[in-house]
UniProtKB/TrEMBL annotation:
One of its GO terms (cellular component) is plasma membrane. The keyword Repeat applies. This is Uncharacterized protein. PROSITE patterns: LRR. Keywords: Leucine-rich repeat, Repeat, Signal. InterPro entries: Leu-rich_rpt, Leu-rich_rpt_typical-subtyp, LRR_dom_sf, LRR_TM_domain-containing. The lineage of its organism: Eukaryota, Metazoa, Spiralia, Lophotrochozoa, Mollusca. The keyword Repeat applies.
Length: 420
């Protein structure tokens, strides 16, 4: 029976024994009305639907999941989701929906909705004006746990968002931040139970006030990857999480060469002051790759209060010094203390040649060596390091970097999976 086709839609049972109607990529311009009525999952993605009219889904009151991604939906009528009392997941990304024009009562029937994905829709910000999110529309979603939405310039989230008290995941799918900032008050109306926050791929620099995260005391995942906010700002907003546990802090490529001024230089020197909040957090996975770090004070970058919390640490593609004993020893000390570390990546550091030849300023046709070559030679002969890698380590990478000539004794875990 469920191998049959109705109006070009195929049916099957998923792993939960739910009836699924596969109506994706069929060229539908409207939602079909005569599907099997007890379907639990309806996939209408990648069609040509432009409007969700009133009572469109009234025949499918048992539906659990509705997928409307990648159509050309620009209009949703007030009673468009009428009858979908049991709907738990609604996906409608990659359309042309202007969320500021959604009818106030649109989501009222969706009393059991826990996941709403409505990002990657129409660009609707205007230069020098705040974008006011339709909080009354979202206030009906009192069971919502996961919200994916776009981040517009100078965002304002009104009191209606206070109704989303079970919200645990806030994911900004597309970023239009350009001239505004995220202020201390931006997230004041969101649930203090929020566990995951994703603000990614904002490719224009914007300011962030220090207190933007103070409303989320239980935050477990913070992902700012590919958002060009600069490492200085990112480290500064971590103060609410001192001596707390976090699963993931992802700061990959948050500094960029397009940001280079006296206040936010492209070349970042890590100090103990900059690390004062980050170093006090018990972190399982930390990504500081491609953040513009060129140097670090002693006892700053690798001086974490809770190194035993680490399972993953990625710091590749920076411009850290790779030839000094001091920096080696900081790294070695961290590795010996990070007893639960499984993945460590410190690759793609710039080449630092040990014995460069220079032109003689008095005789440009001649080359001269470094004055401290003899000193370097002695140093290399006496430079011995013993490294005890963490016992749980599965992946370690030290590639694409020039290091000092030294004798290294590495004690590796018995079951290490990959080492580069």
């Amino acid at each position: 029976m469920y191998g049959a086709t109705t109006l070009s839609c195929n049916y099957s049972l998923n792993l939960k024994n739910q009836l699924v109607a596969h109506c994706d990529n069929r060229g539908f311009m409207t939602v079909p009305r005569n599907l099997i009525k007890n379907i639990k999952v309806l996939d209408l993605s990648h069609n040509l639907i432009t409007v969700i009219k009133n009572n469109t889904f009234i025949n499918y009151t048992k539906m659990d999941i509705l997928i409307l991604n990648s159509n050309n939906i620009s209009e949703v009528h007030e009673y468009g989701f009428e009858g979908l009392r049991y709907l738990r997941i609604l996906r409608m990304e990659n359309n042309a929906i202007n969320i500021s024009k959604l009818p106030t009562r649109l989501f009222r029937p969706l009393e059991n909705l826990i996941v709403l994905e409505i990002g990657r829709n129409e660009e609707q910000w205007m230069v020098h004006e705040s974008f006011v999110y339709p909080d009354k529309v979202f206030s009906n979603l009192k069971s919502l746990q996961n919200l994916s939405i776009d981040l517009f310039d100078r965002p304002e989230f009104g009191n209606g968002f206070k109704s989303l008290q079970t919200l645990a995941v806030l994911n900004f799918r597309k970023c239009y931040m350009r001239f505004g900032k995220l202020s201390n008050e931006t997230f004041r109306n969101f649930s203090p139970k929020l566990r995951e926050l994703y603000i990614t791929r904002c490719h224009h620099f914007f300011h962030i006030d220090k207190g933007i995260l103070r409303y989320f005391p239980e935050l477990n995942i913070l992902d700012l990857s590919h958002s060009y906010i600069h490492l200085y700002q990112a480290l500064n907003i971590l103060y609410p999480y001192q001596n707390k546990k976090m699963s993931v802090i992802n700061f990959h490529h948050i500094s960029d060469k397009s940001i280079n001024n006296d206040k936010f230089p492209y070349s970042v020197i890590i100090t103990k002051e900059l690390m004062r909040y980050l170093s006090s957090i018990c972190i399982e996975a930390l990504d500081l790759s491609a953040t513009g770090i060129v140097d670090d004070e002693l006892y700053s970058l690798f001086s974490f209060q809770y190194p035993g919390c680490f399972k993953t640490f990625i710091i590749s593609a920076n411009r850290l010094p790779s030839t000094t004993l001091e920096h080696y020893m900081q790294n070695v000390l961290f590795l010996t203390r990070a007893t639960n570390l499984k993945t460590f990546d410190m690759s793609y550091l710039p080449a630092q040649y040990l014995k460069p030849l220079f032109l003689d300023v008095y005789h440009p046709g001649k080359f001269i060596g470094s004055h401290n070559q003899e000193k370097q030679h002695i140093f290399h002969q006496s430079f011995h390091i013993t490294i005890n890698l963490p016992p749980l380590l599965e992946f370690v990478r030290y590639t694409h970097m020039t290091v000092s000539v030294c004798v290294c004794v590495i004690h590796m875990p018995k079951y290490i999976a990959k080492i580069f």
